[in-house]
Amino acid sequence: MADMQGLVERLERAVSRLESLSAESHRPPGDCREVNGVNGGVAPSVEAFDKLMNSMVAEFLKNSRMLAGDVETHEYQEDRNDLVISETELKQVAYIFKCEKSTLQIKGKVNSIIIDNCKKFALVFDNVVGIVEVINSKDIQIQVMGRVPTISINKTEGCHIYLSEDALDCEIVSAKSSEMNILIPQDGDYREFPVPEQFKTAWDGSKLVTEPAEIMA
């Protein structure tokens, strides 16, 4: 924690220097000395900002979950099938980023779950009171053991969602995604239903009406 506090203090000093640099950048041409370790030029404030983002700011963002205890983060996990979040709270958000060929189980009840830039990733969870979001991912499997009101799929190729009996009222919202299937429990097994990917829109005389397009063989 002391290391994080020191990092925050360094970040605050860096931001102050960046603000000073922004003011310096309005000086007349030819008067661009070195500020914050970056040589002046056409846009020294931009260079300085990039330098900060690639150093202490990146370090701060990577470790920010230590300060914000409501966010549980799993990043860059590969070939792991033993990932478990067992101690959860209602206010917690689980953020899963760039995990591959792995499985995560979340027990209890959390606020929301975000799957971002993952491949061949499986998620099993008990209950979510808000939303489960899948973004920029590929080959995702989600199994709902309890309840979830909404699952959002965006810019994802391949997403299979296994709903529980208690989650049959879940709303699926999708955009710019393909190969999506919802599996519904029936007679001790699951029946698969594809999510429409193509739609047709027509003018009914007063408004546009959109509905799934039936592909004729």
Structural class: alpha/beta
Strands side by side in the biggest sheet: 2-4-6-8-10-12-13
Shape annotation: globular
What's the main sheet like? 7 strands, mixed
Report low-confidence residues grouped into runs of 5 or more.
Answer: 60-69
CATH topology-level name of the domain at 68-212: Pectate Lyase C-like
Order of helices and strands: HHHEEEEEEEEEEEEEEE
> What is the level 1 CATH name of the domain at 68-212?
Mainly Beta
Could you tell me how far the N terminus lies from the C terminus, measured between alpha carbons in angstroms? 62 Å
CATH architectural group of the domain at 68-212? 3 Solenoid
Structure write-up:
Residues 44-195 form the C-CAP/cofactor C-like domain. One of its GO terms (molecular function) is actin binding. One of its GO terms (biological process) is cAMP-mediated signaling. InterPro entries: Adenylate_cyclase-assoc_CAP (IPR001837), Adenylate_cyclase-assoc_CAP_C (IPR013912), Adenylate_cyclase-assoc_CAP_N (IPR013992), C-CAP_CF_C-like (IPR017901), CAP/MinC_C (IPR016098), CAP_C_sf (IPR036223), CAP_CS_C (IPR028417), CAP_CS_N (IPR018106). The chain is α/β, with parallel strands linked by helices and 217 residues long. It contains 3 helices and 15 strands. It has helices at residues 2-24, 44-53, 56-63; strands at residues 71-75, 83-85, 93-97, 100-110, 112-116, 119-128, 131-135, 138-144, 150-154, 157-162, 171-175, 178-186, 189-194, 199-203, 208-212. A 7-stranded mixed β-sheet has the order 2-4-6-8-10-12-13, with no helix packed on it. The protein has a 6-stranded parallel β-sheet with strand order 1-3-5-7-9-11, with no helix packed on it. The longest helix is centred in the N-terminal third of the chain and has 23 residues, at 2-24. It is globular. The N and C termini lie far apart (62 Å). The model is unreliable at 60-69 (pLDDT under 50).
